[in-house]
Amino acid sequence: MEEIDSMKKKQEFIGYVEKVDFPNKGYVKVDEETVIVKNVIPGQQVRGITTKRRNGKFLGRLLETVESSPDAVVAPCPVFGECGGCLYQSMPYEKQLALKERQVRELIENVTGPLGERYDGIIASPEHFHYRNKMEYSFGDAQKDGPLVLGMHKRGSTYDISPAGDCQIVHEDFNKILNYTVELFRQDGLSYYHKRTHEGYLRYLLVRRGVNTKEFMVNLVTSSQMDYDLTPWLEGLIKLAEQAFDNELVSVVHTVSDTLSDAVKPEDVNLLYGRDFIYEELLGLRFKISPFSFFQTNSLGAEKLYDVVRQYIGETKDKVVFDLYSGTGTITQLLAPVAAKAVGVEIVEEAVDAAKENAKLNQLSNCEFIAGDVLAVLDDLTDKPDLIVLDPPRDGIHPKALPKIIEFGVDKMVYVSCKPTSLARDLIVFQEAGYEVQKMTLVDLFPHTVHVETVVLMSRVKVNTMF
User: Could you give the residue numbers annotated as active site?
Assistant: First the structure.
């Protein structure tokens, strides 16, 4: 091995992981040099290879784990390390929580200064395994020209699929559906959709579960390139559910999508069995979930998250609440019962339609849901909010929308973030405009992964005319 001062591109190295920053940026100490490597955990000794030098530091690619972390546990998943999902499954859950706490606090306190007693801690997921209520599996092969596989993309691979028939973060009924489906289609010699050539039939299998209602939905996504009779698959699926499920199969859907992109764009949705939705219940409210509508993927964890939001937003009696980036309107409806009015704004029209339907289902007449981009819609709103809840997508709030939100001049805002780097960036603008973080809580909705939800309560402490 060459001396570190002569390290260059495509040179192998061995070193210890000293620290991991969000989301998976590991700092590997090699003699006097530090190499930044993804997909590592603190305490490991790893072997890697340098790929480039950026801002005075080497970037590297992980080749293998030479020595496990002293805190390592045996990951129960048979494809751990191969599948691109659960990076932290070999860490004790308490260590995962501590790592996420440190990562997020460092990011946010770089903006706010020390939070001290303003930090309310991290709330663990009620279930550490089998918690996900939705999975989108891809059809493909594990290696070129191999047998048909149904599962998740291998870590770092665009094309190869890792089988997920024994996944540990979903209910066992998910695995039963997956294994039954891939075995039948393999026997029938069905082809999967190839991204390079855009040829093939099988694309995705989407499975959804109402954790509190025990209702199941199965959605098979294919191209239109084959006329295949799905009746035997459907009949076998129904029989499997009757004989071996802990949950009730209430919906089976076949979606045809010929889009060239990876995102599922339904062009034709056919109901094969039951109804085209499932119900889920959270905190006393009932929600109707369609095949493609957004819903938090950890139902029990979402109840913890929304409970924090309700606590932080506080008294809503006779007040107008804006829920920006409202999705299917879960937060809007949770805050509506004693508010004068709750207004949700969401760009995805299907989510807005679902929100309206769910509000009727929950007999809430003081909810209004508006379809449109927050950036465009804010100029046309006639209501003036007393309180604002922000739950933007991973990239955070559009920079041009931030001043419009601030111009409302509300005394209190709650920001829910699934990406703390975006939150930290937006907090800089809020602070410059006179807002201050009063409280922060983390809620772990994604055990064994790098992700975590952050809830921040902001109060206006001074009026700023910068906008």
Answer: 418
- Please check whether residues 142 and 275 belong to one and the same domain: yes
* Residue 109 sits in the same domain as residue 150: no
Average pLDDT score over residue span 283-298: 91
How far is the C-alpha of 274 from the C-alpha of 49, rounded, in Å?
53
Shared-domain flag, residues 120 and 141: no
The confidence score (pLDDT) of residue 55 equals 81
Q: Do residues 303 and 446 both lie within one domain?
A: yes
What's the 3-state SS for 280-326?
A: EEECCEEEEECCCCCCCCCHHHHHHHHHHHHHHHCCCECCEEEEECC
Same structural domain for residues 106 and 161?
Answer: no
DSSP per residue, 185-217:
HHHTTPPBPBTTTTB-SEEEEEEEEETTTTEEE
Alpha-carbon gap, residue 87 to 201, rounded angstroms: 31
pLDDT tens column, 431-464: 999 999 999 999 999 999 999 999 999 999 977 6
Six token digits for residue 455: 């809830």
Q: Check which CATH number belongs to the domain holding 228 and give it.
A: 2.40.50.1070
CA of residue 271 relative to chain centroid, distance: 27
For 114, the 3-state DSSP assignment is: coil
Length of the chain: 467
What pTM was estimated for this model as a whole? 0.93
In the listed set 46, 67, 88, which residue is the last one of a domain according to the structure?
67
Our count of domains for the chain comes to 3
Distance CA 303, CA 280 (A): 12
Q: What is the dihedral of CA 459, 463, 465, 467, to 10 degrees?
A: 10
* Dist. CA 257–CA 332, nearest whole Å: 32
Containing domain of residue 441, as a range?
A: 97-126+298-319+386-460
Helix (H) or strand (E) holding 427: helix 420-432
The reply to whether 145 and 276 lie within a common domain is yes
- For the chain, percent of residues with pLDDT exceeding 70: 98
Residue appearing with tokens 């209430």 = 250
What region, left, alpha or beta, does residue 448 occupy, with left being phi > 0 and alpha being psi -120 to 50 degrees?
left
362 located within any domain: no
**What value does the mean pLDDT take over residues 71-86?**
91
Cα–Cα distance between 234 and 203 in angstroms, integer? 17
User: How far apart (Å, rounded) are the C-alpha atoms in residues 464 and 409?
Assistant: 10
User: Which of 418, 167, 453, 104 has the alpha carbon at shortest distance from 301?
Assistant: 453
Residues 150 and 277 in one domain: yes
- CA gap 153, 169 in Å, rounded: 16
Neighbours of 261 (CB within 10 A): 8
Q: How far apart are CA 236 and CA 230, in angstroms?
A: 10
Reported as a single tens digit per residue, the pLDDT across 181-201 is 999 999 999 999 998 899 999
